[in-house]
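Exercise 7b. Backbone tokens:
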């Protein structure tokens, strides 16, 4: 495989948009991270979605397709169906993946996989850049405890992953298939079973990531305890071979939940949309108590109009100003974290120009 960047960013391959941003131009996001609904079939103990409550509006097929048309028109490059809901709960998921791909967008899906229909895999896999299954345990009983579902769900999801891998290999598809563990320190017993499960299932990669918490620590993540897991995480990574990559997101796991930047520069490049249709700079600001950061809703207003509106840029300018302090006003380790670190350093150097690193494009280059 080409290089797969699981702990970093890919802005080095988007120089034109970075340079335009440095000049103060209004840029279209490169990546949009969104869900098609706020519903979910699981009740994961680490779920940030419970902290993201906002007024939900139903995303119809018409709304979704209009959004995908707008995204392609303004210059968005990639759409990931992840965000704050389980998009397999939407009856329009499969059509949306195909529509987005036909519009020239890179499409990706993150899912618990339980409702993912095996009979639809042959249809959607050629349209996906990556398909990622969220599996935060490698054993059925712990999977049930951690992810808030029945043990039988584990076996159904594993069978669906095997089927996806089979189709990918049989048809020689470019899609990357992976599994992801959201690691809370108390899940340490599942790190090795998770890594072994990925190899058994034949996926391309298994990524182990931190658990994000809000600014009030409502999920109770003790970031200091991650430092005790270094040896077992390295053991998990040692299971990698030429066909299978196990990767811990070290930069976030060992960050102590801290950020070095005060202003937030990332959302113009990678914005998030709630499964309610709400457009906000990031998922950590979806909750109704953050309405001052809410920009619009794609159910009511076409995304192109929202992006062109003064409201959109007022919010973006505010979070990038000294009136906003990400160290105090944000939760820990957001989606935009690595992009923010890079842009913060770029701004601090007061760079007049930006040069990419060169070399072959990595996988998933438009999912920055």
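Sequence design result:
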């Amino acid at each position: 495989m080409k290089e797969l960047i699981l702990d970093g960013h890919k802005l080095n391959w988007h120089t034109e948009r970075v340079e335009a941003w440095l000049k103060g131009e209004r840029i279209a996001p490169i990546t949009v991270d969104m869900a098609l609904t706020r519903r979910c079939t699981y009740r994961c103990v680490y779920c940030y979605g419970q902290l993201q409550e906002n007024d939900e509006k139903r995303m119809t097929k018409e709304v979704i397709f209009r959004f995908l048309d707008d995204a392609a028109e303004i210059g968005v490059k990639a759409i990931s169906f992840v965000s704050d809901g389980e998009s397999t709960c939407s009856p329009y998921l499969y059509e949306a993946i195909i529509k987005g791909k036909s519009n020239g967008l890179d499409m990706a899906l993150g899912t618990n996989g339980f409702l993912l229909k095996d009979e639809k895999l042959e249809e959607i896999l050629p349209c996906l850049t990556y398909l990622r299954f969220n599996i935060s345990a490698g054993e059925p009983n712990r999977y049930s405890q951690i992810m808030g579902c029945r043990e039988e769900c584990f076996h159904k999801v594993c069978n669906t992953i095997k089927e996806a891998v089979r189709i990918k290999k049989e048809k020689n598809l470019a899609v990357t298939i992976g599994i992801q563990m959201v690691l809370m320190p108390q899940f340490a017993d599942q790190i090795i079973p998770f890594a072994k499960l990925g190899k058994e299932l034949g996926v391309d990669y298994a990524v182990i990531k931190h658990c994000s918490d809000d600014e009030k620590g409502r999920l109770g993540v003790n970031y200091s305890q991650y430092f005790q897991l270094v040896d077992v995480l390295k053991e998990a990574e040692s299971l990698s071979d030429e066909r299978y990559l196990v990767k811990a997101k070290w930069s976030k796991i060992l960050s102590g939940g801290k950020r070095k930047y005060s202003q937030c520069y990332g959302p113009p490049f990678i914005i998030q949309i709630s499964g309610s249709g709400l457009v906000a700079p990031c998922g950590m600001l979806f909750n109704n108590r953050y309405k001052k950061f809410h920009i619009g809703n794609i159910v009511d207003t076409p995304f192109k109009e929202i992006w062109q509106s003064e409201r959109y840029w007022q919010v973006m300018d505010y979070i990038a100003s000294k009136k906003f302090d990400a160290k105090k006003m944000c939760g820990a380790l957001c989606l935009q974290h690595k992009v923010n670190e890079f842009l913060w350093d770029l701004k601090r150097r007061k760079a007049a120009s930006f040069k990419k690193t060169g070399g072959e494009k990595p996988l998933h280059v438009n999912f920055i």
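Instructor comment: DSSP finds 13 helices and ten strands in the chain. The radius of gyration is 19 Å.
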